Every structure is written in structure tokens, then in C-alpha cells.
Amino acid sequence: MAIQLGLGQIPRPTVLYVGREDSACWYYWDGQKRIPEPLPALTGYIQGLSLRTTDNPRFPDRTKASLEIQADKPYQIRTEAAPGRETTFLKGLLSALDNLDEARLLEPLTVAVEPGDTETVVLCQLYDPETYQSLRSHWEQELDWQTLLHRVMDKLTRLHGRPAPMSLPEPKVPFPEPKPIPPEPKLEPLDAKAMMAQSMEELTRLGWTIDQGRECLLKRYGKRSRQELTEGELRDFLLHLQQQP
Predict the structure, then answer these.
(1) Nearest-CA neighbor of 109 among 174, 142, 156, 149?
(2) 245 residues of the chain, pLDDT tens digit each
């Protein structure tokens, strides 16, 4: 995705809420009203699945699952996920994701919404955007949906190497500490004669021919032999050889 430089809007993901609105099966919320999205499918790379509590104080126990998708820009698909109130959309989504192996989850997928048999039901179906095949799934009515929800969340977390998904209520997620960079190997102080001897040992270890050694010297220092190198260049050349597998 190309980064737009200069002034612009705050870079937030586009949020789609699952729910029937006019003839659409999902919608945007602009802070005052619902805006239906008529296109029924979103294709992209699934990045993760998390839980979040609602910001509305009228519904303090309302929990939504948020599916993160990277497409032309970041998207989040949100749907009801409180225990015992999981939507038909979420059940279809979880069943399909649970059936896919990890290699398939790294490829683009199409998440599609369709109207159900009542005015409030929204169905979820996954498709292969390359073959147009439906990735169908079936579930048992007595299935423990919260267990399945957390299993799929853990699966996506392992796959993408992200921190553990948000618990309830949503905590503040700290920035991960950067991985320490291993220090570069340090050479003990050596004179030119010792470095010449060690560099010859390294060339023998690597099995380099005279022509290979000369090519390396020409490329790195513009010189044809080790005798032409300065002490600093010889030290650098020895370090370069020692770092070769």
C-alpha cells in the first residue's frame, strides 16, 4: 500500500459493522447515523481477530469481535460476540477460519455477507478470490462458540506473530520491546602479520580460489592483493571472512 505524504486524514482503519440496513448487510457509522455499504464482499489479507467492549455506556456488557483485514487500506469488520449472543455472521466466520490451514490463511480471502432468512440475520461466507470457490463450513448447534472464538484468535496470533489479543475489558496494549541487536564480533588487537595469517586460514576454510579472493578485494577495496591493503582494510577483510558461513 502506497503511503500518502503530506497533509491528510488521520490514518484510522475503516470499520464495517455487520447488520441489516436497508438492502445492505453491513454499514458504516459516522457518529450520528448508519451508512449502508451496498457492496457485499471484502477481499484482502486477514491480519487478526480481537475482542473489544463497546464505548456506549448504555450497553456496558456488549462485546464485539473485530476482524482485521488489510486490503487497499486497513479494515475492521465488527460483529456481536458476547457469550450467548454470538451472531450468525460470527459463527460462520469462525467455522470457516477454523477449517483453513495456516498456509491458506496467509493468502487473500474474500469475506462476503448475505441476508439470512429473517430481517436481522446476516450470513458470512468465505471465498477463494482466485478460483471463486466458496470455502464452506458447517457447525453443530451445541458447539462452544467462545472456545472456538479464542481458538481462532490464538491461531491468527501465532500466525502473524502479534501480541496476545485484547481481553475484556480492553486493556492498553504497550509497544513491544525491540529485540536486542547482537553485538558485532570484536577482533583482538592484531598486527598486520597475524592478520595476514588468519585471513589465509579463513580463505582456506572457505575454499576460496585465488581468483575469488582477488575478486572480493577488487570489489570491496579496489585492490588486487592483501599486501596492498592498509591495516584497517586488512582488519575489515578478516572480519568479512570470519562472518562468512
Answers:
(1) 156
(2) 667 788 888 888 999 999 998 889 999 998 889 999 999 999 999 999 999 876 655 555 678 999 999 999 999 999 999 888 889 999 999 999 999 988 899 999 999 999 988 888 999 999 999 999 998 767 666 778 899 999 999 999 988 865 444 444 444 444 455 556 555 555 455 678 888 888 888 888 888 888 888 888 888 888 888 888 888 888 888 888 888 87
DSSP H or E segment with residue 135 = strand 134-135
For residue 217, how far is the Cα from the chain centroid? 41
pTM (predicted TM-score): 0.62
Q: What φ, ψ does residue 52 adopt, rounded to 5°?
A: -145, 150
Query: How far apart (Å, rounded) are the C-alpha atoms in residues 144 and 146?
Result: 6
- DSSP-assigned beta bridge partners for residue 15: 76
Residue with the three cell numbers 484482502: 44
Same domain for 34 and 133 = yes
CA angle 148, 150, 156 (to 5 degrees): 105
Range of the domain at 26: 14-160
Contact 57, 126 (CB under 8 A): no
Q: Is 225 a member of any domain?
A: yes
Q: Residue 136 and residue 93: Cα distance in Å, rounded?
A: 10
Q: Give, as one character, the DSSP assignment of residue 109.
A: E
